[in-house]
Amino acid sequence: MAKTRIAVAGAGLIGQEHCKLIAASDAAELAGIADPAPAARGYAASLGVPHFDDLETMLDETGPGGAVVALPTGLHLSAGRACIARDIPCLMEKPVAATLKEAFELARASEAAGIPVLVGHHRRHSVDIRLARETVASGGLGRIVTVSGMSWVDKPDKYFDVAWRRQEGGGTLLINLIHDIDCLRFILGEISRVSAFTSNAVRGLDVEDTASVSFEFESGVLGGFTISDAVASPYSWERTSGQALYFPHQPENYLFIGGRDGALEVPTMEHWHHGAGGGDWQSELFRETLPLDGSQTYENQLAHFLKVIDGDEPPVIDAEDGARTLAVLLAVKTAAREGRVVEVAEMLEGL
Ligand SMILES: NC(=O)c1ccc[n+]([C@@H]2O[C@H](COP(=O)([O-])OP(=O)(O)OC[C@H]3O[C@@H](n4cnc5c(N)ncnc54)[C@H](O)[C@@H]3O)[C@@H](O)[C@H]2O)c1
């Protein structure tokens, strides 16, 4: 079977990972790379694919089946529009766009043209996150009461040499917490209200390095999440899952889901429960490990994108769904900035 040709815009940190995954795939091949940075030309040559300075020229000259947009977030809307105008489905890195207005604009353009946009919230393709969602949905934990999670990582100082990462939108909320929020929505349903504190005290940059967030879900579930890019620890999905690109695997947990009948640790998938006889806080709890299928998150994402391109599956997360994750993230930022509880619906007013 002919391989699906995929072009990649932006050959930076994540763009290069997409290039490697496509190049290694049996079902896809790299059609070209667009990136004006001086190093990108040599990078494209090293992979034996054509190089372009801009996305539009690459799309016109290579006519790919799909495109990966791994550009700075401020360029997502225009890049998405360029793909849609040429009937080319795209895998749009997260956040789907820089603002909610832009995100919904992209969602509407995608819907009107019938050209899918898959948002790069890759954890939706991760076996642990999928199993957590299924366990909750099947009632395996009983009525869900609470959730608690953390993402504590230590980014190197040189990570912040890239200007956009030091500016509004480049902090750990929009870069990292947005994935955790997307997972929480995916596993537990819509979030209705948030409150939050943020701090830039450790790195002293304009953007936050640390935050603590409280969530209320539409279901009534209450939860909390702490995040920092300045902590040496194993407690993040990236490290604990062994699923993330360019991170060592340190088996631990980063997310704890609590229900009336049991609790689940993610990603070790330890399911704690009282057994058939039931019990309470003074009786024994049994630990059962739920089996994972061993597949790899980013490979699963690429496989899904190929099905989206072929029209065999709708995007697991489309531009509108990505916009709803962005809305929660912006509610968190607003809550921290204004020191108040923020309804997510407030972010969506007028959109
Ligand atoms: N899903 C994930 O795991 C993940 C991980 C990292 C980043 N991201 C997201 O991916 C996007 C890119 O992040 P990054 O960390 O790779 O950024 P980066 O700065 O490392 O790379 C961006 C690249 O885009 C290139 N570029 C800039 N303007 C361009 C243009 N007009 N046309 C073509 N190329 C252009 C730059 O030269 C650079 O090489 C961001 O939206 C980010 O939030 C997602």
From TrEMBL:
<dbReference type="InterPro" id="IPR000683">
    <property type="entry name" value="Gfo/Idh/MocA-like_OxRdtase_N"/>
</dbReference>
<protein>
    <submittedName>
        <fullName>Gfo/Idh/MocA family oxidoreductase</fullName>
    </submittedName>
</protein>
<dbReference type="Pfam" id="PF01408">
    <property type="entry name" value="GFO_IDH_MocA"/>
</dbReference>
<dbReference type="InterPro" id="IPR051450">
    <property type="entry name" value="Gfo/Idh/MocA_Oxidoreductases"/>
</dbReference>
<feature type="domain" description="GFO/IDH/MocA-like oxidoreductase">
    <location>
        <begin position="130"/>
        <end position="239"/>
    </location>
</feature>
<feature type="domain" description="Gfo/Idh/MocA-like oxidoreductase N-terminal">
    <location>
        <begin position="5"/>
        <end position="121"/>
    </location>
</feature>
<dbReference type="InterPro" id="IPR055170">
    <property type="entry name" value="GFO_IDH_MocA-like_dom"/>
</dbReference>
<dbReference type="InterPro" id="IPR036291">
    <property type="entry name" value="NAD(P)-bd_dom_sf"/>
</dbReference>
<dbReference type="Pfam" id="PF22725">
    <property type="entry name" value="GFO_IDH_MocA_C3"/>
</dbReference>
<dbReference type="GO" id="GO:0000166">
    <property type="term" value="F:nucleotide binding"/>
</dbReference>
